[in-house]
Amino acid sequence: MKQIVALVAVVLLAVVLWRLVPLAAPTQLGPVARHYAEWGVAENGGSNLVTSIVVNYRGFDTLGEVTVLFLSVAGAGFVLRRRHGLVVHEPIPASEIVQTGARLLFAPVVLFGAYIFVHGHLTPGGGFQGGAVVASGVLLLLLADRDRHLPHGFLGLLESLSGFSYVLAGLAGLWAAGSFLANRGVLPLGSWNRLLSAGIIPVIYMVIGLKVGSELAALLDVMMHAAGGDGEEAHR
Amino acid sequence: MNVDILTLMNLVDLLICLVVLVSAIGVAVHRNLLAAVVFAGVASLAVSYLFLRLAAPDVAMTEAAIGAGLSTVIFLIAVRKTRETEDGS
Amino acid sequence: MKTLLELALVLAAAAALLSVYRLIKGPEAFSRAVALDVLTLITMPMMAGLALWVRRSIYLDVALVYAVLSFLGVMALARYADRGV
Fold first, then answer.
1. CB under 8 Å to A57, separation ≥6 — which residues?
2. Which residues, in sequence order, are CB contacts of A216 under 8 Å at separation 6+?
3. Residue B10: CB atoms within 10 Å
4. Is A224 helix (H, G, I), strand (E, B) or coil?
């Protein structure tokens, strides 16, 4: 029965979208989009226009997004506290290949994530993507060795300092150029397509990358060691 | 139907859209949650290619960074901690 | 030259459809995990081929992310069986 319902829902959605999509696709840019497209590179200096929009033109929304991410991870961490007294089946330890491979690959994966968020203003990517890749590197270590515990104090400190630095960058914009999270006055715009360019955008993205990476790593650690046990535990 | 849209790249897009469709139906239909997690991973992968085709590399990279490792693992941890099939057996 | 590249992408998409057969049919979840791995291996050069087709090197970063992280999902599924997740 569920299969039929799923199939009918998919067909209905396809029909609706087939009719609606040509209506919604405009043929020329609106006024705001045209300003971004024409003046984005000149005003911000970085070659990735999406990063300029996310961090500069819509920087305040990104601050809200970082707050939402922090709240969700904090909520999950609060709900999944470790409870004592539950039986957990002993896992089979990972094989030699997985353990050695994880230790060897952890550093290049973290380096790759750092590359993504440091070059956020030049290549596609940025803070959120780079932070997710860094958290995947930490996940590699957690998968290879289940009893590894991450230093939660250090991760919490790193995350809080990064979030604080984001607001500090905004206040520096307020002090130097007159508006919160302004880009022009704080750091020089530099020449196009160089690493040291685009004002304070790379600094903000580095801070976001560190914050997201440490947040997601702490969340993965909490989830793996949370109480709950296996499905059989719930039936006993 | 004008002949401009019958290009080879559009054929590739059509085949990848079929992959997305099949995996989305697979997520909805299967009772074994482990299989559903794998189907969701396939959907994320194919959608990332479609984002690249639509000239949105930042969105494609976000989908790749989250869907390649993290999303699958978080779902697996959740399935491990609760139940493995959907009807509670 | 572009037509040759487009033909290569069509063949890769056909290969992806073939592994979707294993995805649908696989009696266990781990057959489906193998199909996911093969699909990642096929889609990654497709993204690189697309980067060549539009002549933009920035598209290669997305393929690089999949190249680095693709085995994590499969490894997590394998560790799930060992009760290690």
1. A36, A40
2. A73, A131, A132, A134, A135, B70
3. 13
4. helix
DSSP, collapsed to helix, strand or coil, labels residue B31 as coil
Task: Measure in Å the smallest separation between the Cα of C83 and chain A Cα atoms.
Answer: 5
> Residues of A at the B interface (Cβ-Cβ below 8 Å)?
2-3, 6-7, 10, 48, 50-51, 116, 124-126, 128-130, 132-133, 135-136, 139, 143, 216, 220, 223-224, 226, 228-231, 234
pTM here is 0.88
The tokens for B66 are: 């989250």
Closest CA to B68 of B89, B49, B54, B84: B49
Contact residues on chain A for B83, CB-CB shorter than 8 A:
231, 234
Please, are residues A82 and A227 in contact by the beta-carbon 8 Å criterion?
yes
Domain encompassing residue C37: 2-81
Is B88 inside a domain boundary? no
pLDDT in tens, A7-61: 788 889 889 888 887 776 777 878 888 888 888 888 887 788 898 888 888 888 9
Residue B65 included in any domain: yes
Question: In this structure, what token pair is assigned to residue B73?
Answer: 């693992």
Domain range spanning residue B45? 3-81
Q: How many folded domains does chain C comprise?
A: 1
Interface ipTM: 0.91
SS3 content of chain C, % helix, strand, coil (to 5): 90, 0, 10
For chain A, what are the domain ranges? Answer: 54-82+95-227
Residues of C in contact with B65 (CB under 8 A): 65, 69
Report how far residue A89's alpha carbon sits from residue A56's, in angstroms, rounded to the nearest whole number.
50
Across-strand partners of B32?
B85
